[in-house]
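[step 3/7] fold_predict: job queued, chain A
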Amino acid sequence: MIELADATIGYPRKPVLEGVSLKIDEGDYAVIYGENGCGKSTLLKTMLGIIKPLSGKVVCTVDACEIGYLTQLNPLLFDFPATCFEIIAAGLKCRPPVFSKNQEVQERVWLSLQRMGIEDLETSDYRQLSGGQRQRVLIARALASATRLLVLDEPTNEIDAQTTHALFTLLKQLNQGGMTIVMVSHDKEALSYASKAIHLDGEAFIEDGRGA
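[step 4/7] structure written:
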């Protein structure tokens, strides 16, 4: 599904990690962890082809239409006038026009709202939401897009402990249903759900195997 072979990743004249070799197989639940600034987000972006490797091989065989991706930084302007439904629908790739009355779009958006427990926010103005509510909407946006691979960069930012536990439980259920998950997280609870743990420690890359 995703393979890195002796890859140096980062930016021109600024490599972040060197000699990275790893595989994400179909059905994995991989958690990437480490200190701030150690290259976790850069690794995710390289896996997805957003950033090209400086050297080595990176292969992702998953079609963009099958991937849901939550970035660490909110990609939406806070003054963007849209409802939560529209924010989620706009993230769907390779789907019918997102602002149409298409049944598939409506079903995928509604299911993702239900999964995040925010059905009541469907018609709410995104600009008026709290930080935690916005994060849940953005997670729902990624869930709506993912049919084969779900990639989440620090999804628990700004959400409370109860919502965090519910999210991890949901992700485990999705994984048991066949969804491959790759997640960056500073939350130690995330490791207890993982089938594969990847530790980044400064310039060192350590694949730990199964999470503790």
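[step 5/7] annotate
The chain is about 30% helix and 30% strand.
The domain at 1-62+148-212 is CATH 3.40.50.300 (Rossmann fold).
exit 0
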